[in-house]
Specification:
By secondary structure, the protein is an alpha+beta fold. A hairpin with a 2-residue loop joins strand 3 (49-52) and strand 4 (55-56). It is built from three helices and five strands; from the N terminus they run βαβααβββ. The chain has helices at residues 8-14, 26-37, 39-46; strands at residues 2-6, 18-21, 49-52, 55-56, 68-72. The termini are far apart. The chain has a single domain, classed as Beta-grasp domain (Ubiquitin-like (UB roll), Roll), CATH 3.10.20. The chain has a five-stranded mixed beta sheet.
C-alpha cells in the first residue's frame, strides 16, 4: 500500500486529502485511485504533475513500503 496525497482540485474530486491504495508502481496507485474516485478525478490526474517523495516521477516508478505519491494539479493565478 502506498499513501497518496491529493491537492487542490484532485482533493475536491476525490472528497478527501489522502488515502492508502495498492500498487507496485506509481501508475498502479493512480489507476486504483481513478477506479475508486471516478472519471472526473481521472481527468484531473491526466493534467497533473505526479510526485513521489517530493520528486517529479513517471508512472513506471516503483514504490517502496513508505512512499508517498502526490497528485499536484495545475494552478492558475490572477
Amino acid at each position: 500500500m502506498a499513501r497518496i496525497l491529493l491537492l487542490g482540485p484532485a482533493r475536491d474530486a476525490a472528497g478527501r486529502r489522502h488515502d492508502e491504495l495498492p500498487g507496485r508502481t506509481v501508475g498502479e496507485v493512480l489507476d486504483a485511485a481513478v477506479a475508486r474516485y471516478g472519471t472526473d478525478f481521472g481527468a484531473i490526474v491526466r493534467v497533473s504533475q505526479i510526485w513521489l517523495n517530493a520528486e517529479v516521477v513517471g508512472v513506471d516508478e516503483a514504490l517502496g513500503p513508505h512512499d508517498e505519491v502526490v497528485v499536484l494539479p495545475p494552478v492558475s493565478g490572477g
